[in-house]
TrEMBL record:
UniProt-listed CDD domains: SirA_YedF_YeeD
InterPro entries for the chain: TusA-like, TusA-like_sf
Every UPF0033 domain range: 7-31
Pfam families: TusA
UniProt protein name: UPF0033 domain-containing protein
Family that this chain belongs to: Belongs to the sulfur carrier protein TusA family.
Amino acid sequence: MKTTKLLDAKGLACPIPIVKTRKAIAEIEAGEVLEIHVTDKGAKNDLAAWAKSGGHELLNYTEEDNVLKFWIKKG
């Protein structure tokens, strides 16, 4: 998947990954994809809800070696 920007939020606890995601998504254009890496397990529900409420699309989510990876398309 082609990403425009990568946000490394590993090791950060809620709500910091959401705060950093909000800032990063503001730096890309509509239709572009932000890839986010986090280790906070709560981010799974938080990022999905945040994307939906902000008019963005959660394209994919994976977990590898305790790192949650999200791809969000800016709305």
